[in-house]
Design a protein that fits this description.
It is built from 11 helices and no strands. The chain is mainly alpha-helical and about 300 residues long. It has 2 domains: about 110 residues, Receptor-associated Protein; about 120 residues. The radius of gyration is 28 Å and the shape is elongated.
């Protein structure tokens, strides 16, 4: 997971070492922990964790965006290379055609590939270099099959056509997965990051309201001060445990949602902080809603 993160962040164009980004994220996280132990307020821990995840996730998202752009246009590019080769042109001409086409990040990669070929690299060596650089399973598969086809003297144009169809189907399957899991994703997001934490907050709010009414019982002598203080401590401990539960549950749900929707557990670093922030706001909102309605 660490190697993939470093490769994706580097491909995103970040000019600093990705490990420094993780160090900065760790400092935010440690700051949140320190804030919690100094004040006893989970808000500092949540903010530290959300900021740490955001610092680590934004560069990763930038890299993933570039990779997705490459994969989105790969099928069309392979089809175009096949057509150029069928016309009798060389690999270098085919690569130049892709480099000047409107394929976004993929065209920029082919421009770099063209420079490598002009510097003496073979087509397949330059293509394999691009596949390693982009860190895309689609490109790696294409590079492996193309390499075998060229070395065995196969009909490269036919192989490219077949690869184009395979890549297109793989990309469509990935997009269909996102579309088909939308309802499940929304259910998980609402239940784990909004409704569940809000209901837990409501239960804590009711308990706090009952404690406030217990103060009247102490004044009337119905309840001893020691018993009242014990109930206050128990509710405070329960609130702390439930807050910790909301934090852990929302983070795990974020990673589950990422695996379900994207098919990549690493995207959990993007989903988890959003789930955590929503869950904590809902939990605190549930407590404050009850207290405001009851005047507690």
């Amino acid at each position: 997971m660490m190697d993939e993160y470093v490769k994706v962040v580097r491909y995103g164009g970040l000019r600093v070492d990705p490990r420094l980004v993780l160090v900065l994220a760790a400092l935010f996280f440690l700051g949140g922990i320190a804030g919690y132990f100094l004040t006893g307020d989970f808000l500092y821990f949540v903010l530290g964790l959300v900021l740490a995840d955001a610092v680590a996730a934004v560069p990763y998202l930038m890299g993933r965006k570039r990779i997705d752009e490459v994969e989105e246009n790969l099928a069309d590019a392979l089809r175009q290379i096949s057509a150029v080769l069928r016309s009798g042109a060389t690999f270098e001409v085919a690569v130049r055609e892709i480099a000047v086409s409107d394929y976004g990040q993929l065209s920029r990669e082919f421009s770099r590939m063209l420079k490598e070929m002009e510097g003496g690299k073979s087509f397949i060596a330059a293509f394999e270099s691009m596949a390693l650089r982009v860190n895309s399973p689609f490109l790696e598969k294409v590079a492996t099959i193309l390499s075998d086809a060229i070395r065995t003297g196969g009909r490269v144009a036919d192989v490219l056509d077949e690869l184009s169809e395979d890549v297109r189907k793989m990309y469509q399957i990935r997009k269909e997965r996102v579309a088909r899991t939308t309802m499940q994703f929304m259910f998980l997001a609402v239940s784990a990051a909004v409704l569940g934490p809000f209901l837990l907050g409501v239960s804590v709010g009711i308990a706090k309201f009952m404690v406030s009414t217990g103060a009247e019982l102490v004044k009337s002598g119905t309840l001893s001060l020691e018993e009242f203080q014990e109930k206050v401590n128990n509710i405070a401990a329960a609130e702390e445990i439930l807050t910790l539960f909301v934090i852990i549950e929302s983070l795990l749900s974020g990673f589950m949602a990422a695996q379900m929707r994207e098919g990549r557990i690493t995207m959990g670093f993007v989903y988890a902080p959003v789930f955590l922030l929503l869950a904590y706001i809902s939990f605190v909102g549930g407590i404050n809603t009850v207290l405001s309605l009851t005047g507690g």
